[in-house]
Amino acid sequence: MAAGVAQNQEVGRLGVTERRDAWWLGPLATAAGLGLFIVYSTFRAAYNDHYQVERPDSAYILSPFYSPLIVLPWLPPWLSPAFLILWAPGGFRLTCYYYRKAYYRAYFLDPAACAVGESRGHSYRGETRMLLFQNLHRFFLYLALIFLVLLAIDVVHACRWPSKDGGGHSFGVSVATLVLAANVTLLGCYTFGCHSLRHLVGGNVDCFSCVAFGQARHRAWSCVSRLNAHHMLFAWLSLFMVGFADFYVWMIASGRLTDYRIF
């Protein structure tokens, strides 16, 4: 009996486990991926330049980090417009159910992985006190849905090329248009697969035939559920894509790359 108690106490210590696989690779990769994105996005927001393409021979292209572009004359020049909006999509990801699991494990080792000991043992009290802000996730979801519309409008602007005669605009698609469209698509898959949205559209209904618009709500719930099954995949793909979209606009705006028009 004493040996059993000692063994249970040993398993509860940080990093102690009977697993024989490389369980630490997942948290390490997560920490590296999230860390790189945080460093890059912070740098780009502070850099505060080359975030839009506004030339007479090109469609208007705007980095998703700066959309919608907020320029107020009374703001100090060192305050980047990106900082005025990144808190909203950043808050959506910070409070996301998947990302909570990801950065709890990667940065706080809480727990580091399944069946791996953690420092606080079994004293979990839920997301209270300092973590109470996690309950704001559904409100950040509403903001994320608005941002999807704004980013979709940016894709439309990227399709409006100045006419050669200087009178109006014509439809056109460039590589930047495809990049921005792919960004909106992946962000949409991530956002519409949100656990809170799944609950909102039908997850809180016990009987779809007993409520108004039950059939429509069931179809919506089914669609969100299919996206939700791949929520982790879309979380990473959309994170990578929004960073790449900003990088591509940066390269075009700074003259390092040429945005080729496809048609």
How does the SSE layout of this entry go?
Blueprint: H1 2-11, H2 25-47, E1 52-53, E2 61-62, H3 87-94, H4 97-108, H5 137-157, E3 160-162, E4 169-171, H6 175-191, H7 195-203, H8 214-228, H9 231-253
Describe the overall structure:
The structure is a single chain. The chain is mainly alpha-helical. It has one domain. It has 9 helices and 4 strands, in the order H-H-E-E-H-H-H-E-E-H-H-H-H. The strands form 2 sheets. Strands 1-2 form a two-stranded antiparallel sheet.
The tally of beta strands, per DSSP, is: 4
Unreliable stretches: 1-9
**Termini Cα gap:** 77 Å
User: Strand portion, in percent?
Assistant: under 5%
User: Which class best fits the helix and strand makeup?
Assistant: mainly alpha
Order of helices and strands: HHEEHHHEEHHHH
Question: How many independent structural domains?
Answer: 1
